[in-house]
């Protein structure tokens, strides 16, 4: 939608006035030759946070040498995020460099598809993510959490990053692949980090060599991608060759349901489309949830008073009763712990779009074809919307607090028509996993921050050690 500037209406006899011209988009000057490229490579999240503090809610950031320079328009206010993701979503598409790199590697699934492709996929897949269907996965979630708790029995401490990555991957793989979970986990865990690093490096590089060139990074990524594609394709072929038998046995894993998904308008998903969706679910349901769980444990260990309050709530549950989806409704404080964790450590800290037409955001003109960046990492720390934003305080998410806050001040799952389809699954998994682990252990962590960086998702740099003490 183009920006139109018209004269303001005035009363008869009054001097006509015109609307003030939108301000030029401010931003850091950076290095004379490279702009902010070095800052973004060293500390992308800190660079964007400083940009908001120093220049405001719409900031122009440049990176790279002249002639190869990337220009990003960063939108940090909740109002601006709502405009980009929701109220004017049609004007901001997933045509930017980052999503194109994901599309080239991970296929054209729900995360990257657009227009008719996206609408068709969403219609086919949405019935598999109803609350009732997602709630049915509570048993699988709890089983993996309890297996992790048992494996920790003789461990005085663990690395929360590694352990929650393992747990989240096993959980989403069990939901996706059912009895075939063991066949998939090792392959995915070995190769996903290679793929994620490759996508990120290409997305931020001022010069991207063709993927067909036999460079070391291209060859490593091709090998990793081929391995992940191979296991997905084998499992999909097995489901399709045994489709009627699987249906007779009432197989409930998500891959079987995806294989059977169809309607008169949209048909069904072919083998390539199935693989693309599986890859999206592995990424969105694995790395993101692992991040939330790892940092929840880290924060609970640093704040023993919060941990004790959460454990009191867990201990009040009926003894010996298995955890189900209904358990989450009886753990409101633990849910707030998770929400506050996701505020401080949003698993998707950066969200990209490209503008279709020139438009105005927060009083600044954004040109057509511009790279747009929404940053939950920055918006979740916006001082106008969060009091003492670096402080960990789960009671920010009491119902009274939430009703007074802009709905896009907290957006770990995005928003608008492209909001995450797996939001309820992620929340259910995270709350139940934390409930199981806190039921079994008191945890302690050093009172220090864990360094992070942004790849496809938020990633800890190094370990997040958690001390364990079995509860009696």
From TrEMBL:
Residues 1-30 have a biased composition (Low complexity). Residues 1-32 are annotated as: Disordered. GO terms for molecular function: heme binding; iron ion binding; monooxygenase activity; oxidoreductase activity, acting on paired donors, with incorporation or reduction of molecular oxygen. Keywords: Heme, Iron, Metal-binding, Monooxygenase, Oxidoreductase. Gene3D superfamilies: Cytochrome P450. Heme binds at residue 420. Its cofactor is heme. Belongs to the cytochrome P450 family. This is Cytochrome P450. It comes from Streptomyces sp. SID12501.
């Amino acid at each position: 939608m183009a920006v139109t500037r018209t004269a303001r209406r005035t009363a008869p006899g009054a001097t006509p006035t015109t609307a003030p011209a939108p301000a030029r988009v401010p931003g850091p000057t950076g290095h004379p030759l490279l702009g902010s490229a070095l800052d973004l490579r060293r500390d992308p999240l800190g660079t964007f946070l400083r940009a908001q503090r120093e220049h405001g809610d719409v900031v122009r950031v440049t990176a790279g040498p002249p002639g190869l320079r990337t220009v990003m328009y960063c939108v940090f206010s909740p109002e601006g995020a709502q405009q980009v993701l929701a109220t004017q979503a049609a004007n901001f598409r997933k045509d930017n460099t980052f999503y194109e790199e994901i599309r080239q590697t991970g296929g054209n699934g729900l995360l990257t598809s657009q227009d008719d492709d996206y609408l068709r996929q969403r219609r086919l897949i949405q019935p598999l993510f109803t609350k009732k269907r997602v709630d049915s996965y509570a048993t699988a979630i709890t089983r993996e959490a309890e297996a992790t708790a048992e494996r920790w029995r003789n461990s005085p401490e663990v690395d929360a990053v590694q352990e929650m990555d393992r747990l989240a991957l096993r959980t989403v793989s069990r939901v996706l692949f059912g009895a075939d979970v063991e066949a998939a986990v090792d392959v995915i865990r070995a190769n996903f980090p290679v793929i994620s690093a490759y996508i990120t490096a290409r997305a931020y590089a001022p010069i991207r060599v063709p993927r067909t060139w036999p460079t070391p990074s291209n060859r490593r990524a091709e090998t990793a991608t081929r391995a992940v594609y191979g296991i997905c394709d084998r499992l999909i072929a097995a489901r399709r060759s045994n489709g009627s038998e699987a249906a007779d046995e009432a197989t409930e894993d998500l891959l079987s349901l995806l294989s059977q998904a169809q309607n008169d308008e949209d048909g069904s998903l072919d083998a390539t489309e199935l693989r693309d969706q599986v890859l999206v679910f592995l990424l969105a349901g694995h790395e993101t949830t692992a991040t939330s769980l790892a940092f929840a444990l880290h924060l609970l260990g640093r704040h023993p008073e919060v941990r004790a309050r959460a454990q009191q709530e867990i201990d009040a549950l009926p003894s010996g009763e298995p955890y189900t989806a209904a358990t989450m409704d009886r753990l409101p404080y633990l849910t707030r712990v998770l929400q506050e964790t996701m505020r401080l450590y949003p698993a998707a800290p950066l969200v990209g779009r490209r503008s279709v037409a020139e438009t105005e955001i927060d009083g600044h003109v954004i040109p057509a074809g511009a790279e747009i960046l929404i940053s939950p990492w920055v918006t979740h720390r916006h001082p106008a919307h969060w009091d003492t934003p670096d402080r960990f305080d789960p009671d920010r998410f009491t119902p009274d607090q939430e009703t007074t806050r802009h709905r896009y001040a907290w957006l770990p799952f995005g928003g608008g028509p492209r909001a995450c389809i797996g939001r309820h699954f992620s929340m259910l998994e995270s709350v139940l996993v934390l409930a199981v682990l806190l039921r079994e252990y008191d945890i302690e962590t050093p009172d220090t921050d864990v360094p992070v960086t942004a790849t496809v998702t938020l990633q800890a740099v190094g370990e997040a050690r958690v001390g364990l003490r079995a509860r009696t």
